[in-house]
Amino acid sequence: MNSTKIVTCFLTKDNKYLILRRSDKVKTMKSLWAAISGIIEGNEEPLHRAKTEIFEETRIPEVKIGLLRAASQMRVDSPQYVNHEWLVYPFLFSVKDPVIELNWENSEYRWISPSEITQYRTVPSLDKVLASLL
After folding, report:
1. What phi and psi values does residue 18 have, to the nearest 5 degrees?
2. Fewer C-beta within 10 Å: the chain N or C terminus?
3. pLDDT at position 117, please?
4. Domain ranges of the chain
5. What are 88-124's pLDDT values in tens digits?
6. Which uninterrupted H or E stretch holds 126?
7. By C-alpha distance, which of 4, 6, 132, 2 is closest to 57?
8. Strand, helix or coil at 45?
9. Measured between alpha carbons, how far is residue 15 from residues 73, 93, 95, 115 in Å?
10. What is residue 10's predicted lDDT score, i.e. its pLDDT?
């Protein structure tokens, strides 16, 4: 089985969690709701990639976030590819006074409570990734 290592990052403020709607310009999972995510390149540290993705996708700088929790790596089946899985490194960050500026990868965002996640069409196992961080 082929696998791809990715980070999945949730930001939290006031007991709400940020989710983003993937744009129609991305290669996979178009229009599905997700957390901030990205592929880990080479031997890159997952935490470094997490902070990079947060800045790239929201323009929130590292000085405005604080790592609250990192969960164990999770395996998630990839419905779009045969014989493929995602190795997800989950992270939860607090954020102070966020001003979110989305890049081309996402078209909108929402702050939700954990119980609301089932009301959204999300990337596979997003609810499980969030639960692993709570």
Report:
1. -80, 130
2. N
3. 95
4. 2-133
5. 999 999 998 889 999 999 999 999 999 999 999 999 8
6. helix 126-133
7. 6
8. coil
9. 24, 12, 11, 11
10. 97
